[in-house]
Fold this protein.
Amino acid sequence: MITVRAYAETRQTRPTSTPPQVSQTHDGQAITFLLWHWHEDGERYDLEHFQLIPAKNTWQVRVRRTTHWALTPPQLTEFVTEAGFTKIAWHSPASSGYYQPVLTAQRAPSAQ
């Protein structure tokens, strides 16, 4: 099972950030947002995950960085097929209840 963002449209629009999200912590409200820095190939982006955490009369800033490969469903299906998986199926958020697309597949039986 693999779940991914719906990258087909995202790769066309290449967003540069997400709206801030507010969550409640034991110290107060924390604010989280992402910055996306797209590579020229249009398939990869460097992600910066920012969290503003309340700290007495100021904010503590946490930043995490990573690189993502924005694979579309056809690309991911091809890779899973090449890896020898079978019974590959995509499940939409409407059918799975999960907020992003889910791929399920089965490992091909090994020859003995």
In short: Residues 63 and 110 are 43 Å apart (CA to CA).
